[in-house]
Request: fold
Amino acid sequence: MTRCSIQLAAAPLFSFILAAGFAIPIPVFGHAILVKSQPAADSTIAESPKQVDVWFNDKVGSEYKALAVINSKGERVDNKDIEQETFDPSHLYTTVTGLPPDTYTVRYRVVSLDTHIVTGKFKFTVNKP
Ligand SMILES: [Cu+2]
Reply:
């Protein structure tokens, strides 16, 4: 999702526009978008990463954040130790330990500055050495 609608409660100044019938979606500063990850989305890497990192276009909330790494059998394999970088709150990461060759799905959920919950997923593959 790259844009989002104004929320009435969050933007009372715009409510008169909505009341007048012009309820069109307006891009709002602060809606989080995943901009980078390590491993990169859809990449194939030679050996297990030590952690999985995601970066958003803006800082995200410290509450309700979630990051999970799931193997092809649907089993969660990350160490459930999500962290948010203190000096870059747009950066979340979780550690993983010795992932065997497989294709993994990374699922994330964060709360944007605009209070919207953003969820998404991407895959990466650990190949045989
Ligand atoms: Cu939003």
